[in-house]
């Protein structure tokens, strides 16, 4: 029994998806992948295996809108009271990162501060490398980017779409266990909000399970926002409390930098990786790769889909579906400013 049928059986009381929703979900994903990004500078092409974002492989499962077991009522304060025991290998790396962070000055980022992040990202279809420059306020209210005309455009963030927000880091605990509870509380908030329509789009795919969603939340926060060294060490420490997370001895980011990584494998056999410098423990980038051959299964009976039985999506083992590198991040004076 494949994952789709298993989930459908487990959640047989879930109302059927409306006609066309599955195809629409996949179309939206492809549209988002093809949409132009702000401040994009083309660099030389890089040699990488073809593939699309891992979410494409799981988009059909996501489209079914199957509720997930959150391990408790997300509305209760004690919903994340029970944590799995810390995994020694992950905790040991996080502890070394904490020691390195404590040698740096303590930094507080005011809520109204503008932060700058520069990321290299591998393009899905062209395999070119894009240079992305974005600005955010630490409270998650505003974002800015440079358009094709060279002008800086400031936009108010839609709290129903920009999840996770930079505000997730404001006042976040700096101890590993506290950060783990903070991460799971946010995941449970997202799950509850998705059920009620309070979130329309998120980079946290809750359809792949609560633990994978928690790992993804940490990965997205490190990738998208300015993170202080102590927050970074705490996020690493939180990973020790997520079942299934392992330490990978060698990984490469989009800039060609090698380091260690934390990884977790989802139900579609995609391993997500958080890559960091093995000496300084600074976050470098992230990647996702298929660990097994994967072929798109047919949808459950009664689910409308654009599934083509003669040409289902297929991803070979080793197909890279996400690759980026965080090149710079800092607190700046305002939108458009750089360190």
Task: Please write out the topology.
Layout: H1 3-10, H2 21-34, E1 41-42, H3 54-63, H4 88-102, E2 114-122, E3 129-137, E4 142-146, E5 152-156, H5 176-196, H6 210-224, H7 229-239, E6 246-252, E7 258-265, E8 270-276, E9 283-290, E10 294-295, E11 314-315, E12 320-332
Antiparallel strand pairs: 1-3, 2-3, 2-12, 3-4, 4-5, 6-7, 7-8, 8-9, 9-12, 10-11
Task: Explain what the structure shows.
This protein is α+β, with helices and mostly antiparallel strands and 339 residues long. It has one domain (3-332). Helix content is 28%, strand content 23%. The chain is built from seven helices and twelve strands. Strands 1, 2, 3, 4, 5, 6, 7, 8, 9 and 12 form a ten-stranded antiparallel beta sheet that branches. Strand 6 and strand 7 (258-265) form a beta hairpin. Helix 5 crosses helix 7. The radius of gyration is 20 Å and the shape is globular. The model is unreliable at 1-79 (pLDDT under 50).
| Helix content percent band | 25-40%
Q: SSE string, helix = H, strand = E?
A: HHEHHEEEEHHHEEEEEEE
Largest sheet: 10 strands, antiparallel
Overall mean confidence score, pLDDT: 80
* Structural class assignment: alpha+beta
Beta-strand fraction estimate: 15-25%
**Whole-angstrom Rg:** 20 Å
Total helical segments: 7
Q: Given the C-alpha coordinates, what overall shape results?
A: globular
How far is the N terminus from the C terminus? 53 Å
Q: How many domains, in number, for the residues? A: 1
* Total beta strand runs: 12
- Unreliable segments (pLDDT under 50, ≥5 consecutive)? 1-79
């Amino acid at each position: 029994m494949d994952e789709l049928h298993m989930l459908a059986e487990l959640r047989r009381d879930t109302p059927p998806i409306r006609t066309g929703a599955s195809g629409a979900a996949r179309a939206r994903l492809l549209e988002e992948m093809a949409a132009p990004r702000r401040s994009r500078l083309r660099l030389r092409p890089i040699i990488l295996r073809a593939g699309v974002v891992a979410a494409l492989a799981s988009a059909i499962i996501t489209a079914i809108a199957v509720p997930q077991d959150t391990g408790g009522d997300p509305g209760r304060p004690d919903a994340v009271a029970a944590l799995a025991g810390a995994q020694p290998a992950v905790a040991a790396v996080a502890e070394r990162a904490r020691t390195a962070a404590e040698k740096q000055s303590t930094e507080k980022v005011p809520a109204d501060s503008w932060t700058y992040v520069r990321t290299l990202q591998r393009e899905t279809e062209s395999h070119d490398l894009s240079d992305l420059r974005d600005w955010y306020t630490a409270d998650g209210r505003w974002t800015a980017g440079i358009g094709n005309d060279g002008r800086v455009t400031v936009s108010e963030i839609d709290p129903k779409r920009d999840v996770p927000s930079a505000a997730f880091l404001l006042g976040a605990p700096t101890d590993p266990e506290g950060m783990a509870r903070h991460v799971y509380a946010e995941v449970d908030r997202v799950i509850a909000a998705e059920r009620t329509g309070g979130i329309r789009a998120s980079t946290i795919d809750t359809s792949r399970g609560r633990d994978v969603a928690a790992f993804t939340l940490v990965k997205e926060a490190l990738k998208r926002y300015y993170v202080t060294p102590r927050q970074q060490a705490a996020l690493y420490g939180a990973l020790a409390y997520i079942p299934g997370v392992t330490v990978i001895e060698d990984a490469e980011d989009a800039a060609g930098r090698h380091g260690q990584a934390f990884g977790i494998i989802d139900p579609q056999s995609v391993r997500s990786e958080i890559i960091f410098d093995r000496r300084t423990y600074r976050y470098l980038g992230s990647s996702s790769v298929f660990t097994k051959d994967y072929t798109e299964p047919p949808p459950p009976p009664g689910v409308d889909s654009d599934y083509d039985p003669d040409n289902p999506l297929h991803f070979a083992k080793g197909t890279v579906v996400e690759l980026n590198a965080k090149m710079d991040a800092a607190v700046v004076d305002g939108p458009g400013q750089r360190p």
